[in-house]
Design a protein that fits this description.
Blueprint (H helix, E strand, L loop, with lengths): L2 H25 L5 E4 L22 E4 L10 E7 L25 E5 H4 L8 E6 L2 E11 L19 E4 L1 H6 L10 E7 L1
Parallel strand pairs: 3-7, 4-6
Antiparallel strand pairs: 1-2, 3-8, 4-7, 5-6, 5-8
The structure holds 2-acetamido-2-deoxy-beta-D-glucopyranose (NAG) (3 copies).
One 2-acetamido-2-deoxy-beta-D-glucopyranose (NAG) binds next to loops.
Pfam families: KWL1
Subcellular location: Secreted
InterPro entries: Kiwellin-like, RlpA-like_sf
């Protein structure tokens, strides 16, 4: 083989490898770190509405990214209260207000919350052949957890749409099944 040909094919190989790495890097969202669970002090971590509490010594992955947003982005729908004294802790990050659980509002995992860029914007959530428009008011923090600020709950997974009761109602999910459902969402 001529030297110039082998150099050319080597360069081509390098280009192929680097674009391939870049491509998978953009597609994949890897953990940014991990947190070791601490036992909630007595009275912390309100479990009234099935909130998860950190387990002493358990490792939880943290994420700064979420899967790429598509026209129908797959997500896990969870249940949250956005009311004062609800299980969401403080007021919503986007407007520093509490929201009635009778209004369709959601919190998104950190990557999708995207540094507040979806704050007070609406998303369409679909499941069971039904859909509902809900407003993004808060972040489900994928980067931190297991501390007082997060009520000793683990960091949020990176694919969560955490929704008020109104969203679950609108999707026609029977009450005894509220809490975990695979849905798709898109920007409204
Ligand atoms: C649990 O949910 C009920 C309604 O389903 C709500 O009234 C109550 O405030 C919630 N409790 C907490 C701690 O979030
Ligand atoms: C998030 O937004 C704030 C205010 O607009 C900006 O200062 C900050 O650099 C942004 N952070 C990231 C990670 O984009
Ligand atoms: C989102 O929907 C609410 C309720 O329909 C509406 O008041 C609000 O203006 C919408 N937000 C945006 C950014 O379109």
């Amino acid at each position: 083989m001529k030297a110039s040909t082998s150099i050319a094919s080597f360069v081509l190989l390098l280009i192929l490898i680097s674009t391939n790495c870049f491509y998978s890097e953009a597609q994949r969202c890897r953990p940014s770190g991990r947190i070791i669970g601490k036992k909630p002090p007595p009275g912390e971590c309100n479990q009234e509405n099935d909130s998860d509490c950190c387990v002493q010594g358990k490792a939880y992955a943290t994420f700064k990214c979420s899967p790429p947003v598509a026209s129908q982005t797959k997500a896990q729908l969870t249940l949250n209260s956005f009311e004062k004294n609800g299980d969401g802790g403080g007021p919503s990050e986007c407007d520093n207000k509490y929201h009635s659980d009778d209004t369709p509002v959601v919190a998104l995992s950190t990557g999708w919350f995207n540094n507040r860029s979806r704050c007070l914007h609406n998303i369409t959530i679909s499941a069971n052949g039904k859909s509902v428009v809900a407003m993004v008011v808060d972040e489900c923090d994928s980067t931190m957890g297991c501390d007082e600020e997060h009520d000793y709950q683990p960091p949020c997974p990176n694919n969560i749409v955490d929704a008020s009761q109104a969203v679950w109602k609108a999707l026609g999910v029977p009450h005894n099944q509220w809490g975990g459902l695979e849905i798709t969402w898109s920007d409204a």
